[in-house]
Amino acid sequence: CNQPQPHVALLPSAGMGHLTPFLRLAAMLASRSCTVTLMTIQPTVSEAESTHITSFFATHPHINRLDFHVHPSATSDTTTDDPFFIRFGAISRSGHLLGPLLCSLSPPLSAIFSDFIATAGVSQVCEDLCIPNYTVITTSARFYSLIACLPYLSLENHAKTGGSENDVEIPGLGSLAPSIIPPPFFNSNHLFTNVIETNARFLPKAKGIFLNTFHWFEPETIAAQNNGKVLTNLPPVLPIGPYEPYELKQGHHIPWLDDQPAESVVYVSFGSRTTMSKDQLRELGNGLERSGHRFLWVLKASKVDKDDKESLEELLGHSFFERTKNEGIVVKEWVQQEEILAHPAIGGFVSHCGWNSVMEAAQTGVPVLAWPQHGDQKVNAEVVEKAELGIWARHWGWGGQKLVKGQDVAEKVIELMGDHILRAKARKVGEEARKASKVGGSSEKVLMEVIEFLTP
Ligand code: BUP
Question: What is the ipTM score, two decimals?
């Protein structure tokens, strides 16, 4: 126990999609002989964040907790009312305040691993403390390339000069159709775009870029990044995924699954902060019913969980539950998604392609029907399709752009659940993912090299 250990401070950003990978990283580092201080952004946006933070520290008492109160959000921004984007803005403006909190920690810090959203401020703090900053990217390697280049792409001009039909070239990676780029990126005044651009300019100051992906899954993108083809001044990318699940005594267990035949259930979830119109929810319900497959659907009816007030019956109608009571279940509670995906009864996953969900599907080898809704999700869906983990209903557009009819949903679910070749390919992805994170695997090696580098 007198062996020198690196002391790493972790700084996540807002929302479960950003918190979850940090909780996993914290547990992974602690189990590899690191001293870990996990900073927790206060106040949290969602209830799920608060409950997971509390229960994480109860389960991992050896990980130090340090609350970090961010600058109050600016009220003048008129480009978005998304509470998560607004909190990203506040975190982005607050990183530099960390210095006094961190300089007195004992033992002294070896490094800060911070969410991309805080890169600008944290890189200044790291310079002052003379320690390295590693930026943690919570999306695909492919989308990371887009955000790294964003300050230099002039997307607003691209749109203004009639380029909305023309693909956008990403150096070293080929082209992206404008329809898959998040719409806010075409507006340089948008808060989300500002936050990304501000922090992307500081990426060259980072020591390395952690990606929750693995070499086999995105080989060309990782090679292009590490060969300086995307931008010449970026630090190396360090693919260390899929992250290991961490122990957590929380979450809604679903005994119903245990009674279902192998690979017979389609799991449906659009992540923690995507909601759909009531009409779309009803069409989706109709599609699941028509598909004839059993289903487990985690339904979110508001962007922030605290605001989710309508009952399932109000949302989907009493008769839906009468008709489908033997076929499927719908829940609003937080479930243990990783446990569900690993359950033998699950045969497919209808997903928005939030990156954590993609990595969880990869790890468990479950085929995906990609239905991206916003943000990085269309680019992630491209990655899913290319790696042969799933299929993508490309023409369904962004969430809310048009009403996708039940019949179309049913056809795609039938395709997903009935495609044995796809299932075998997804299983292969699962084998490769698990190989990458095992001792001696590509991701584990990269992580251990970093830990060794940081060991005093
Ligand atoms: Br909902 C839900 N249980 O009930 P993504 C989500 N999750 O374990 P998002 C549960 O939350 P961003 C639930 O397994 C994943 O690890 C899920 O992250 C877990 O999507 C995480 O998939 C959700 O990245 O975040 O929430 O839309 O927009 O940041 O991608």
Answer: 0.98
